[in-house]
Amino acid sequence: MTTDAELRELLRHTGLRVTAPRVTTLAVVSERHHAETDEIAEAVRERLGSVSTQAIYGVLHALTAAGLVRRLETGARDAARYEIQRHDNHHHLVCRGCGRIEDVPCVRGQSPCLEPSDALDFTVEVAEVLFRGVCSECRATSVLMQTSSPMPPSSNQPPLKEKKP
Amino acid sequence: MTTDAELRELLRHTGLRVTAPRVTTLAVVSERHHAETDEIAEAVRERLGSVSTQAIYGVLHALTAAGLVRRLETGARDAARYEIQRHDNHHHLVCRGCGRIEDVPCVRGQSPCLEPSDALDFTVEVAEVLFRGVCSECRATSVLMQTSSPMPPSSNQPPLKEKKP
DNA sequence: ATATATGCAAAGGGTTTGCACTCCC
DNA sequence: GGGAGTGCAAACCCTTTGCATATAT
């Protein structure tokens, strides 16, 4: 848990102007992991009253650009999700049943955790790793297993569009 | 290079109906790697005459669902890209300068090439790995280097919107 | 005082949907 | 013949953009 004063200090220290929407957005993101933009907007409004959607987008951009927040894109047409930048270099599991996202420590634990093999003439700045599959709950309850493995891992599935029930 | 007859046979064998848009789309995707949807549409039309955009979307969905084609999503708001499913389990480098995409063999060479560490209760079906950075050409020519490493790998950068020049 | 954030409204862009028509099997 | 594929048009959804106003430093 981070206090409001600490968040203000964090913003100031990063060189960002301190505004109510920014402080509150930062607080919300640090509390609810992997929240979507409109979830965040709703939560911010609960605490501050009216704040425009565009303001939230602006704040999230600023926080992302400043490196205080990390933006996740779990599906091309889904809403972006955000989490606090902890610099612990973790990756994500996304369940195609319930849409839930879980953190998973990096396989190699260090950054860069994955190097594109050998002498490629390419400067890697970011390695994004996303594991798609089925969480234990969904595996137990549902009929999702039919797609379980006709295709090998690292093949993309057709786009899914399930929403959390 | 794959002949037209082979492509028809491939479709039939997969249980898909054989139509001109499907055969041609498959041919186009197998020739131009990582093409975007509208690039594919344009190329298909060059060979077949008028084909609706929605037909192309439908074909690409069908081919993806059947596992003949692999869909790449290199940025949440960018167009999807497609490549032939070669089952060789490779990953991708994407240059933030020119937008070009290069294949890179899997770091571990096998599928699943990456396992979320140890005893997580999660069935991994797909591991998507995307390396973002700068290719040799862009590194040499441009002013992109300013962002080179204030943030450690595996941190997302703010969304980029550069288009190929 | 001044550059920066926010509010409001509208556009943007890739993708999807609904329905009639046409084609493959 | 019958069901899937295609064409056409319009809707969708998240996100971005433009400009006036309010705010932080």
Structure summarized in a few sentences:
The structure is a homodimer of 165-residue chains. Chain A has 165 residues and is of the alpha+beta class. The first copy, chain A, folds into two domains: 1-86, Winged helix-like DNA-binding domain superfamily/Winged helix DNA-binding domain (Arc Repressor Mutant, subunit A, Orthogonal Bundle), CATH 1.10.10.10; 88-149, 2-Layer Sandwich (Dna Ligase, domain 1), CATH 3.30.1490.
Overall 3D form of chain A:
globular
List the helices and strands of chain A in order.
HHEHHEEEEEH
Order of strands, main sheet of chain A, comes to 1-3-2
Instruction: Return the average pLDDT of chain A rounded to an integer.
Output: 82
Q: Count the strands of chain A? A: 6
Identify the notable features of this structure and list them briefly.
33% helix; alpha+beta; 165 residues; DNA-binding; 2 domains; Arc Repressor Mutant, subunit A; 5 helices; 3-stranded antiparallel beta sheet; 20% strand; homodimer; 3-stranded mixed beta sheet; Dna Ligase, domain 1
Q: What does the model show?
A:
The structure is a homodimer of 165-residue chains. With 165 residues, chain A is an alpha+beta fold. Chain A has two domains: 1-86, Winged helix-like DNA-binding domain superfamily/Winged helix DNA-binding domain (Arc Repressor Mutant, subunit A, Orthogonal Bundle); 88-149, Dna Ligase, domain 1. Chain A is 33% helix and 20% strand. Chain A has five helices and six strands. In chain A, the strands form two sheets. In chain A, strands 1-3-2 form a three-stranded antiparallel beta sheet. Chain A has a three-stranded mixed beta sheet with strand order 5-4-6. In chain A, a hairpin with an 8-residue loop joins strand 2 (69-72) and strand 3 (81-84). In chain A, helix 1 (4-14) packs across helix 2, helix 2 (20-31) crosses helix 4 (53-65) and helix 3 (37-48) crosses helix 4 (53-65). The two termini of chain A are 29 Å apart. Residues 144-165 of chain A have low confidence and may be disordered. Chains A and B meet through helix 4, strand 2, strand 4 and strand 6 of A and helix 4, strand 2, strand 4 and strand 6 of B. Strand 6 of chain A pairs antiparallel with strand 6 (122-135) of chain B, so a sheet runs across the interface. Chain A binds a DNA duplex (25 and 25 nucleotides) through helix 4.
